Amino acid sequence: MKQYSFYQYALTKRNENSEMGKLAELIFSDLSFPKFTDDYHTLSDYMETEAMFTQPMSVFDDLFDSYEEWLKF
């Protein structure tokens, strides 16, 4: 199993022409984003209360689900 933070995974999606790619770009630009965690609740709380992103939380959920699947391989 891979050992990467969610942030590291999100960076791999930055150039995608998709909603997840747009979110990944915003995550990259956010200097306060919690870069060293893989905890869904920590990340979700940050996205809901601290981040200034306009994407729906469903995009974050999809990206996090993709991250969890990616970790398995």
Automatic annotation (TrEMBL):
<dbReference type="Pfam" id="PF06855">
    <property type="entry name" value="YozE_SAM_like"/>
</dbReference>
<feature type="domain" description="YozE SAM-like">
    <location>
        <begin position="5"/>
        <end position="69"/>
    </location>
</feature>
<protein>
    <submittedName>
        <fullName>Hypothetical DUF1250-containing protein</fullName>
    </submittedName>
</protein>
<dbReference type="InterPro" id="IPR036806">
    <property type="entry name" value="YozE_SAM-like_sf"/>
</dbReference>
<dbReference type="InterPro" id="IPR023089">
    <property type="entry name" value="YozE_SAM-like"/>
</dbReference>
